[in-house]
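forwarding from the other thread:

> can someone predict this with nicotinamide-adenine-dinucleotide?

sure thing
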Amino acid sequence: MKSRVLQIEGWQKIVHFTDDEAGLEALISIHDATIGPGCGGCRVFPYESFEAGLEDVKNLSRGMTYKNALGGIPFGGGKAVIFADPRKDKTPEMLRAFGRAVESLHGAYYTAEDSGITDADMAIIRKETKYSAGAHKTNDAGEQIGGNPSPMTARGVWVGVKAAALKKFGDASLKGKSVSILGVGAVGMELARLIHEEGGTLVVADVNDKATTEARERFGASVVSPEDAAAADVDIFAPCALGGAINEGTIDRLKAKVVAGAANNQLKTPDMDEALKARGILYAPDYVINAAGVISVGLEILGTWTKEEMTRRTNKIGDTLAEIFKRAEAEDSPTGAIADKMALEVIAQARKAA
Ligand code: NAD
C-alpha cells in the first residue's frame, strides 16, 4: 500500500492511498479535529477523475465537522471515498486494504457506511481496523447496539421533515402531505416507508428502476424521472441521492415549500441557501437533518449506544432544526448560514475549553 499526504489549506489532513494488488484507490480526509478525531462514513463511487473524488471528500469531510458539532458527538469531521463502482468493482481484498488504510491513521479517523458501502462490506473492513463502526452488533443480552446507520438516518430525516412541516405548514403531521423523494436507496426507501405509514403521498425518482418499482409497489408512489423530481408538484422535496440537487437548473422549477432530505451537500453552490430563502422555501440544512446515522456511529464508538439514547438523540434533531428556523427568522438569514454559525459556536466553545 502506498500513501501520500496532500497539503490542502483549510483541511487538517488528506491522505491518498493506493494498493494496486488489492485494486484500491482511496482518499481519507480529516477536516477539523478540534472536538475529537475525524468521524464519518466511506463512500464508494466511480468518480470521473481524481479531482472529482478529492472535491467530494473535501466537501463531505467539512460537512462532517459541522454535522458532528451540531449532532452533539465528540468527534471532528472526517470522510473517506473509494474510487470504484459499488455495483461491480468491490472485492474483499479492496475492502480489507481500505481497512488497513484506516488502521494506519491510528485512530485519527473512524469509518462507517456511506453510499456504496453495505453492512457486509463493513464486516470485512472491520477485520483490518478497530477504528470503525456501523456493523451490526448485539450486547450480551442480545440487544442491538448500533449497526447499519441508514435506517437511523432515515428516522432522523423523518423527524426533521416533520419539524420543517410544523414550521412551514403549522402542522407536523405528514398525513395528506405530498413528498418527492429523489433517490430511493438505503435511506430514501426507509424514509418513503415512514412517510407512507403516516399517510403521506409519495413521488419518487431514481436512476435505478428496481428501486422506483419497489417504492411504487410497496407505497403506491408515483414515479418520475430524476430530472423531474425537484419540479414535482408536492409540499416537500426530499433529496436523498447524491449532492447538488438544489442548483441553478432546479431552483426555479421547485414547487415544494420545504426542502428536507438525507443527501449530503444538497446545495450545489452556497448561494442556493439565500436563493431558497428568497423564494420562501424552508430549507432544513442537510447535515443537521441527516445526522442520526453518525450520531449512532459516535455512540457506538463511545460505547454508550442504547435504543433509548438513540431515540432521544434522534428526536433532538427536530429541536435543533426548530431552533435554526427560529434564529433564521429572527436574524432574517438563510437557514444554512444559521446552522453553520451554530456549529462554529460549538467548535469555538470546544477550542476555548481545550
Ligand atoms: P444509497 O446508495 O443506498 O442510495 C442512493 C440512491 O440514489 C440509489 O438508489 C441510487 O440509485 C440513487 N441515485 C444515485 N444517483 C442518482 C441520480 N443522479 N438521480 C437519481 N437517483 C440517483 O445511499 P444512501 O445511504 O441511501 O444515502 C443517500 C444520501 O444520503 C447520500 O447523499 C448520503 O451521503 C446521504 N447520507 C446517508 C447516510 C446513511 O446513513 N446512509 C447518512 C447521512 C447522509
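The domain at 150-291+320-343 is CATH 3.40.50.720 (Rossmann fold). thats all i got for now
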